[in-house]
Amino acid sequence: MKPAPFEYLRPATVAEAVEALSAHPGEAKALAGGQSLVPLMNLRLARPAALVDLDRVAGLDRVEISDGYLTIGAMVRHERLVTDPTVRRTAPLLAAAATWIGHSAIRHRGTIGGSLAHADPAAELPTVAVALRAEMVAAGPAGTSRSIPAGEFFLGPLTTALDDGELLTEIRIPLAPDRRQVGFAEFARRHGDFALVLAAAVVDSGSLRVVLGGVGPVPVAVSALDELEGIDPPGDLHASSRYRRALLKVLVERALEQAQ
């Protein structure tokens, strides 16, 4: 199938991209890697009136450390998350999770910002962002900017806290004051498929955080392992709720073993 007609815009700056999004409130979509949006458009499940291509926007592909944060531009490709030495050193959980995303061609095209803004509850990066207490920086009209904690960014399946006209520009991950231990475990029917269940574990400064994906409409954080008993994952044609619940316990154990 082919997408419905749309206006194609290709801005060169963040300000131009925000202006383009604001000119079509509620009817424009930002095109990052396109690995999720383009298939939806081809099936006409998404029908944006305007498509704002971010590929030429300057400054969205950087990886740097500043002011106690690892800052990653929204247009950084998944494959770079796997291979970049700065990411691997300061956010190994992010690098480990990115290896599970799709296949090589998808990882070389898909972007961190696109995945987070798409907000699929079975995707790896939303779960990891919550586990690492990341902040999402959004640019808005008239040069405004705000930071949204990852735990508040995801509102539901394919729904985020971004307002009309706002653009996700970077992800900021706080650096650990001492050594951070992490673990990541996932189960999918085939490598590259969306996860049936996934788990991320982080131990730093003596505290433990476990965040689960694929078990609810948004990533689910638990502060104590006995809270797992209260989680009731949805069932679908890929796996029953009971099967996901059994997987959940196994994957949390695996993630915790890695984080020791």
Number of helices: 10
The largest sheet, given as strand count, sense and whether it forms a barrel, is: 5 strands, antiparallel
Distance between the termini: 49 Å
| Mean pLDDT figure | 94
Report the order of strands and helices: EHEHEEEHHHHHHEEHEEEEEEEH
User: What gyration radius follows from the Cα positions, in whole Å?
Assistant: 18 Å
By CATH, the architecture of the largest domain is named 2-Layer Sandwich
Structural class: alpha+beta
CATH class of the largest domain: Alpha Beta
Strand fraction equals: 25-35%
General shape: globular
Plain-language structure description:
This protein has 260 residues and is an alpha+beta fold. 30% of the residues lie in helices and 26% in strands. The strands form 4 sheets. A 5-stranded antiparallel sheet has the order 4-5-10-6-7. The protein has a 4-stranded antiparallel sheet with strand order 11-12-13-14. Strands 1-3-2 form a 3-stranded parallel sheet, with helices on one face. A hairpin with a 2-residue loop joins strand 8 (154-156) and strand 9 (159-160). Helix 5 packs antiparallel against helix 8 (124-131). The model has no long low-confidence stretch (mean pLDDT 94).
Sum this structure up briefly.
The protein has 10 helices and 14 strands.
Task: Give me the secondary-structure topology.
Layout: E1 7-9, H1 14-22, E2 28-31, H2 37-42, E3 50-53, E4 63-66, E5 69-73, H3 78-83, H4 85-90, H5 92-98, H6 104-109, H7 112-118, H8 124-131, E6 135-139, E7 145-149, H9 150-153, E8 154-156, E9 159-160, E10 167-174, E11 181-187, E12 197-204, E13 207-213, E14 220-222, H10 241-258
Parallel strand pairs: 1-3, 2-3
Antiparallel strand pairs: 4-5, 5-10, 6-7, 6-10, 8-9, 11-12, 12-13, 13-14
